[in-house]
């Protein structure tokens, strides 16, 4: 697993890291935390860094682990006997894994004052396992700190939720993701679109090999061209012959609509002189041209038409009908 | 690190510490044995994080050189492999040499093995021998103390604290108590005068104490005990045994032990044990056999049990009876365990009522007390 | 079956444990052999012994040293229950080759209804079975033949070892009636005592006994015993009977699939009431409680909990069931719920190990217990029991489906 330093995480999750820093500096560490947030927001890395701070022998400024002492090194190698990480064994966290934890709860730490338990994907605990864990959360013994991690907070038992201090991880800022993608070798033309399609850097990076997506982008830009230069009947024909065969499932149609939406937002950004924020940088010249022909009101109407279509998609409207109606609204105004 | 060592001593130490090495572990470093060589000799350590055993091999013993230290240092070597290698070496002297990184060379005669070791810095750090609380105890007394209490610990995880033996040290006295909530065993030991200022309240896992009895050598006369915040250390001459302590507060038991009684029955311990044993022989397949105990007139106690296969088994034992008549039922197994722990020629049972705990003591050893809860029959 | 005479066999293995040992180790054959818990030491008691040993006066429950005094050459072995169980299985498998209507009554005895399977003469069929068990399994047995279970059982007891005895209904006045009631199957020491109090001494007296008197003294059992004393017994040979004893359960299909926890717990409470009442009617306690949850997708889960102390009370049954349910219910809609009490033990085998931290609550009952003991000493064992024993109609389930559904494996 990739380890991230406190400084790096601070850039991605400034609010969370400030909270943790305060707790460490004031020595006000809770018995149980629930780290909640979308995939790729750095919850697990933060739990590890936070644990390092708890055990570090050479803490910097009272909160930052040194990453060099034996204790920090042992955490990287999973050799700290007072830090336990529980992860789903297959699809769920089994009662045996929690029983192991309970046995550890019942004993004093091996060498330090603290014991730390990290439960990754805590929502994957079986009801049985969750209830066993609850017993500990109700009556914590000694200096024990539990960190539960989840991407699906709605699946955590309310009884567990109420006993944990909730720490919410925000999706990463887009600029940050774009910057990192470019550093990872994604072209500056592709990076903004990938970053907008997901919050997770690893997922975004993987999009470079997603054939469906690359084709989808072509189709979206082509649709724009046809609407600009052809008859409305041509647009409908294009939707029938090219668009619909590619965007089949509801998720695919939704993604297609998003990509259309980014296009109009780009044009709006050009009008507002925010050229550095556009999703399709290689289309900048085209957008500039279009920006001259469209008023902000027209643009706003088109954007709201797309948002309306997205809403209707969720209500299970037939996608061919949906696209045709949308095309009318986009092309007429 | 580089040293030469007598093979037999090395093998013996490896065997001692490998008992503690984790078979399955979530902490990778614990699959190894840690070797430390310093000016005084060589130490080997094995641990599963609950129990750790450290064996010390001194440089010299009775004017005989056992270890020659060329260069001090430490390494962690994979335990099973290291143990196999050491046993197979041809000559009586072994050389262990740490080369660059963690590469370790073990050689003896023409044989040479290279093992890639692990960073000794990553190995758990055990408490220092000089803890805040320490005292000495005769090893046979320690063994008895453990044997007379540890059998009564709970084996169920529902109340983890009861899986340990509660030690309270104060006023130069050590009180050990174990209970699984159905019976209780208590033993008091007077400590050496030097420990009169000590006060300590700890719970030691029953599992650790059972292991400890196996490890204490007959030749060790006294054991030094060091208690730290997290661990207890038992120190024999060349062997250190560490156990993690249990977390939490042990329930108050002293007020649960009845102080007055309504009936007392003094019995020949052996006769009584055998009578209970006979009556419980038909307790099979893990079923707890219940014994009925009742006082007949003229100093006779009736012991009976019933099983559907056989019917009723009944037996009479002579005893000195004081106080009211009583009819009470209890688990044969618990009674047998208690009588074996007391190990006296005569025992006295003090009853306060058929649905209340009763205690078993012996006149010639005031330091031990066993308590049993009866069973209610329908 | 009414209107047609039945032919029932009762197969009774002769000194079963000892015979099995001899079958495993033929050297022991023809020698006095006893099974005892602890053969190494002279303490321990005799669990069972061979006929050779009985001839010396060795008896069950006798201490080993006493037996040795009577019979110095007595060979003593430890019990091997696994062996006995394996052998028992083989015996019943052999009996089932003749008819499916085989009812095991315990590890070493069972009934067969051979009414539809006798080809020539019942005695010749019995001889064949006895010979096969002897030759194929190396075990001796006695077989009783009668028109019902009671007479067959009584007959098998009349000649041991290797006996075959026929007991007809018309033989009853001549053979059974002169005997004291205590000799009769189904009459124990306590029952004989009670019969004596109403002037019934022999089986003949019992056969002519007054119904009302008998009912008062022994309840419904008194009437049944009178019937038996007259040679009448209508109980069928029931191959499932052994399961009836092992568990008592009840289940209910809900009117509609639901996730309403309050409703589900109420349903569970009602089931606990029925199961508890049925256990009380049978005077048994459960040492394991299991619950069954069937979901709307028809997946069925059974989860059980072994108990420290046997239970019977509705509140106890409900408490365990509720705990099991809350622990294992996955939150999906439930279609059916069930509770079963398993590993049942008789009332006189049920006990509660008191707990050091909670015994005070129970110890409050001591004064009551004392009063009962005093009354018992004065008027005899059965003068009083805690709570009046009565039949609990809650145990009746209105559907025909009160069979112990869990035992259908």
Can you characterise this structure?
The complex is a heterotrimer of chains A (333), B (378) and C (409). Chain A is of the alpha/beta class and 333 residues long. Chain A contains 16 helices and 5 strands. Chain A has 2 domains: 6-171, P-loop containing nucleotide triphosphate hydrolases (Rossmann fold, 3-Layer(aba) Sandwich); 210-332, Up-down Bundle (Zinc Finger, Delta Prime, domain 3), CATH 1.20.272. Chain A has helices spanning 6-12, 14-25, 43-55, 70-76, 95-105, 127-138, 158-161, 174-183, 191-197, 201-206, 211-229, 232-246, 250-271, 284-293, 296-314, 319-332, and strands spanning 32-37, 83-86, 115-119, 144-150, 165-169. The mean pLDDT of chain A is 87. Chain B has 3 domains: 2-122, DNA Polymerase III, subunit A, domain 2 (DNA Polymerase III, Chain A, domain 2), CATH 3.10.150.10; 134-169 and 189-251, DNA Polymerase III, Chain A, domain 2, CATH 3.10.150.10; 257-372, Proliferating Cell Nuclear Antigen, CATH 3.70.10.10. In chain B, a hairpin with a 2-residue loop joins strand 10 (103-108) and strand 11. The termini of chain B are far apart. Chain B is α+β, with helices and mostly antiparallel strands and 378 residues long. Chain B has 6 helices and 28 strands. By secondary structure, chain C is an alpha+beta fold. Chain C has a 5-stranded mixed beta sheet. A 4-stranded antiparallel beta sheet of chain C has the order 9-12-10-11. The radius of gyration of chain C is 25 Å and the shape is globular. Chains B and C meet through helix 5, strand 23, strand 24 and strand 28 of B and strand 13, helix 15 and helix 16 of C.
* Parts with pLDDT < 50 across at least 5 consecutive residues of chain B: none
| Helix content bin of chain B | 10-25%
Q: Tell me the number of structural domains of chain B.
A: 3
Beta strand % of chain C: 15-25%
In CATH, the topology of the largest domain in chain B is named DNA Polymerase III, Chain A, domain 2
- Total beta strands of chain B: 28
List the helices and strands and how they pair.
The complex is a heterotrimer of chains A (333), B (378) and C (409).
Chain A: H1 6-12, H2 14-25, E1 32-37, H3 43-55, H4 70-76, E2 83-86, H5 95-105, E3 115-119, H6 127-138, E4 144-150, H7 158-161, E5 165-169, H8 174-183, H9 191-197, H10 201-206, H11 211-229, H12 232-246, H13 250-271, H14 284-293, H15 296-314, H16 319-332
Helix pairs in contact in A: 1-2, 3-4, 5-6, 8-9, 11-12, 11-13, 12-16, 13-14, 13-15, 15-16
Chain B: E1 2-6, H1 7-18, E2 32-38, E3 41-47, E4 51-58, E5 60-61, E6 64-65, E7 67-71, E8 73-78, H2 79-88, E9 93-98, E10 103-108, E11 111-116, E12 133-138, H3 139-150, E13 164-170, E14 173-179, E15 183-190, E16 200-205, H4 206-215, E17 222-227, E18 231-235, E19 239-244, E20 263-268, H5 269-280, E21 290-296, E22 300-307, E23 311-323, E24 327-331, H6 332-342, E25 346-351, E26 358-362, E27 365-372, E28 375-377
Helix pairs in contact in B: 1-2, 3-4, 5-6
Chain C: E1 8-13, H1 16-24, E2 33-36, E3 46-49, H2 51-54, H3 64-70, E4 75-77, H4 81-96, E5 102-106, E6 109-113, H5 122-137, E7 141-146, H6 149-156, E8 164-166, H7 172-175, H8 189-197, H9 203-207, H10 211-218, H11 220-229, H12 241-246, E9 247-258, H13 261-282, E10 284-295, E11 300-311, H14 314-328, E12 334-346, E13 351-353, H15 359-363, H16 366-379
Parallel strand pairs in C: 2-4, 7-8
Antiparallel strand pairs in C: 1-6, 1-7, 2-3, 5-6, 9-12, 10-11, 10-12
């Amino acid at each position: 697993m990739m380890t991230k330093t406190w400084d790096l995480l601070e850039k991605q999750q400034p609010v969370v890291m400030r909270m943790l820093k305060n707790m460490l500096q004031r020595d006000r560490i809770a018995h149980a935390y629930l780290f909640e947030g979308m995939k790729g927001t750095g919850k697990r890395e933060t739990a590890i860094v936070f644990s390092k701070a708890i055990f570090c022998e050479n803490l910097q400024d009272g909160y930052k682990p040194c990453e060099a002492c034996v204790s920090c090194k042992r955490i990287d190698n999973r050799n700290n006997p007072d830090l336990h990480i529980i992860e789903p064994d297959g699809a769920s966290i089994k009662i045996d894994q929690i029983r192991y934890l309970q046995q550890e709860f019942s004993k004093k730490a091996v060498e330090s004052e603290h014991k730390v338990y990290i439960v990754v994907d805590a929502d994957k605990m079986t009801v049985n396992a969750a209830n066993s864990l609850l017993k500990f959360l109700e009556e914590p013994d000694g200096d024990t700190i539990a960190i539960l991690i989840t991407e699906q907070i709605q699946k955590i038992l309310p009884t567990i939720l109420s006993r944990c201090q909730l720490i919410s991880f925000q999706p990463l800022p887009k600029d940050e993701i774009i910057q990192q993608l470019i550093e990872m070798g994604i072209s500056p033309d592709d990076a903004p679109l990938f970053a907008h399609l997901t919050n997770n850097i690893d997922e975004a990076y993987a999009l470079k090999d997603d054939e469906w997506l690359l084709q989808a982008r072509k189709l979206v830009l082509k649709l724009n061209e046809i609407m600009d230069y052809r008859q409305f009947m041509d647009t409908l024909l294009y939707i029938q012959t090219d668009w619909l065969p590619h965007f089949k499932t509801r998720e695919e149609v939704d993604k297609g609509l998003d990509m259309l939406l980014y296009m109009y937002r780009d044009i709006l950004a050009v009008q507002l002189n925010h050229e550095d924020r556009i999703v399709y940088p290689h289309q900048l010249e085209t957008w500039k041209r279009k920006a001259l022909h469209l008023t902000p009101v027209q643009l706003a109407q088109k954007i709201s038409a797309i948002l309306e279509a997205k809403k209707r998609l969720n209500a299970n409207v037939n996608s061919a009908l949906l696209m045709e109606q949308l095309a009318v609204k986009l092309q007429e105004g | 690190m580089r040293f030469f060592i007598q093979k037999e001593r090395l093998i013996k130490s490896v065997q001692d510490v490998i008992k503690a090495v984790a078979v399955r572990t979530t902490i990778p470093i614990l699959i190894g044995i840690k070797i430390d060589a310093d000016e005084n000799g060589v130490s080997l350590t094995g641990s599963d994080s609950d129990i750790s055993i450290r064996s010390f091999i001194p440089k010299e013993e009775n004017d005989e050189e056992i270890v020659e230290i060329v260069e001090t240092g430490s390494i962690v070597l994979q335990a099973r492999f290291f143990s196999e290698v050491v046993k197979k070496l041809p000559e009586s002297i072994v050389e262990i040499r740490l080369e660059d990184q963690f590469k370790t060379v073990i050689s003896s005669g023409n044989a040479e093995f290279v093992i890639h070791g692990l960073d000794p810095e990553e190995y758990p750090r055990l408490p220092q021998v000089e803890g805040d609380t320490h005292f000495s105890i005769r090893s046979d007394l320690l063994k008895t103390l453990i044997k007379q209490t540890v059998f009564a610990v709970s084996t169920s995880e529902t109340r983890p604290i009861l899986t340990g033996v509660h030690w309270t040290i104060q006023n130069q006295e050590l009180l050990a108590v174990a209970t699984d909530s159905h019976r209780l065993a208590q033993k008091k030991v007077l400590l050496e005068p030097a420990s009169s200022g000590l006060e300590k309240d700890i719970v030691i896992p029953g599992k650790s104490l059972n292991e400890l009895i196996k490890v204490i050598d007959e030749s060790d006369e006294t054991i030094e005990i060091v208690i730290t915040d997290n661990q207890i250390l038992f120190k024999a001459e060349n062997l250190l045994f560490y156990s993690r302590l249990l977390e939490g507060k042990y329930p108050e038991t002293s007020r649960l032990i009845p102080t007055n009684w309504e009936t007392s029955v003094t019995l020949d311990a052996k006769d009584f044990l055998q009578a209970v044993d006979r009556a419980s022989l038909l307790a099979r397949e893990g079923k707890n056999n219940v014994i009925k105990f009742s006082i007949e007139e003229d100093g006779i106690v009736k012991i009976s049990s019933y099983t559907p296969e056989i019917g009723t088994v009944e037996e009479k034992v002579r005893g000195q009876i004081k106080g009211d008549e009583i009819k009470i039922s209890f688990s044969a197994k618990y009674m047998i365990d208690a009588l074996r722990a007391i190990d006296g020629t005569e025992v006295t049972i003090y009853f306060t009522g058929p649905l209340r705990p009763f205690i078993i003591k012996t006149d010639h050893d005031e330091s031990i007390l066993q308590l049993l809860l009866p069973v209610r029959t329908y | 079956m009414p209107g047609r005479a039945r032919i029932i066999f009762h197969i009774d293995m002769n000194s079963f444990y000892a015979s099995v040992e001899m079958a495993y180790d033929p050297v022991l054959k023809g020698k006095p052999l006893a099974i005892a818990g602890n053969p190494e030491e002279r303490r321990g008691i005799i669990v069972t012994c061979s006929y050779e040993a009985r001839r010396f006066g060795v008896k069950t429950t006798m201490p080993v040293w006493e037996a040795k005094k009577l019979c110095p050459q007595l060979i003593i072995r430890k019990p091997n229950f696994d062996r006995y169980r394996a052998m028992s299985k083989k015996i019943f498998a052999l009996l089932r080759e003749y008819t499916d209507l085989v009812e095991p009554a315990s590890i070493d005895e069972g009934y067969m209804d051979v009414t539809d399977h006798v080809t020539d003469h019942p005695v010749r069929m019995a001889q064949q079975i006895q010979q096969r068990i002897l030759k194929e399994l190396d075990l001796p047995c006695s077989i009783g033949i009668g028109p019902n279970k009671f007479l067959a059982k009584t007959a098998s007891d009349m000649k041991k070892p290797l006996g075959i005895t026929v007991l007809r209904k018309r033989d009853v006045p001549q053979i059974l009636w002169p005997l004291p009631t205590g000799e009769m199957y189904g009459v124990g020491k306590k029952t004989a005592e009670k019969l004596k109090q109403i002037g019934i001494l022999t089986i003949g007296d019992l056969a002519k006994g007054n119904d009302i008197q008998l009912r008062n003294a022994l309840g419904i059992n008194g009437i049944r015993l009178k019937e038996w004393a007259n040679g009448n017994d209508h109980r069928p040979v029931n191959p499932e009977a052994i399961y009836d004893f092992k568990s008592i359960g009840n289940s209910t299909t809900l009117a509609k699939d639901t996730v309403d926890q309050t409703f589900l717990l109420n349903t569970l409470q009602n089931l606990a009431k029925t199961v508890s009442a049925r256990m009380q009617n049978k005077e048994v306690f459960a040492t394991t409680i299991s619950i069954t949850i069937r979901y709307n997708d028809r997946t069925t889960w059974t989860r059980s909990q072994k108990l420290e102390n046997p239970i019977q009370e509705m509140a106890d049954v409900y408490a365990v069931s509720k705990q099991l349910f809350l622990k294992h219910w996955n939150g999906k809609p439930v279609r059916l719920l069930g509770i079963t009490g398993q590993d049942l033990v008789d009332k006189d085998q049920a006990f509660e190990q008191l707990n050091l931290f909670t015994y005070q609550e129970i110890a409050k009952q001591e004064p009551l217990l004392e009063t009962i003991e005093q009354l018992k000493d004065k008027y005899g064992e059965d003068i009083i029991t805690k709570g009046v024993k009565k039949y609990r109609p809650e145990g009746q389930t209105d559907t025909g489906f009160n069979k112990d559904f869990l035992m259908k494996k």
